[in-house]
Amino acid sequence: MADDGRDLRIRPLGIGEALDRAVALHRRHFRELFLATLALELPLFVAARLQASALGELAASADPSRWAAAAHLLPPLAGLALLMLAGQFLLSSAAAFLVAPSAAGPALAPRAGSGRLALAALGTALAGVAATLLAPALGALPGLLLALRSASPAGQVLGVIAAVAGGGLALLWVLLAFLLAPAAAAVEGLGGLRALWRSLRLMRPAPGTPLAERPGLRASVVLLAALAITMAANTLAGLPRAAALLLAGAGSPGARLPLPAEVVVGGIEIAAISALRPFGLVALAVLYFDRRARREGLDLEGWARSLAGAGGAR
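Above: the chain's sequence. Below: its structure in token form.
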């Protein structure tokens, strides 16, 4: 996509400005983001459709013995969920790498080799998946112990409620704390636990920061806005499947389209996902550079380097 000539380098931004910058960066790097998302999402999309088809057949079956045998689908479903979670981290790293030259300026763009950055992104994805699974388990542990050890029904119910609340809060914390780890891997070449620690430091508010400026709150608002936009677009992308099923008269839970129609409809869906999903990932990259500009003066550093480069050119 042709460059529009607009200066998109990041400085400390308001929430509306961050969303506007994410839209502009998404447009400027649309082709690269689309291809990167398509390459990773296509196999996951096909696997998910196959699993959904198998579950649909079970739901439509009136044979209870088939329902009892559905346990064999659990390991593939769990594996697919883990792969999709890891893919989220990898795609976030890819988006940050692709938009970094525009967001930070050429002087601060990633300088490490592509192999090192890929290994850092992979290590960060594995560490992020492990943290995402471990944190809710640890958060729910006190409540589970209370439920198991309590002799009264009231204590058991209280323990279950505490387990659900503790696991949910722990999951929310880990998602926000490690939100910027993929960008740190792609831009700074930090891998695994180092990227998670880097994200945790960037997301930590300075003492006395007003509530409206706290990074967790700002990140939540930006992500909710990005999620709303993406969900609305994905809903529109799902209309062709609904229309095709309606025209085919396939309204039962396990209904499937004929193979030619499935290929066409699936192609529309994966194209829409690959076109729209990167917007939320670019928003994460914008948050990463915004946090570095606020905490470390990244924008001033880039400005100083550009001046030094201009002086040297003379």
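Residues 15 and 218 are 7 Å apart (CA to CA).
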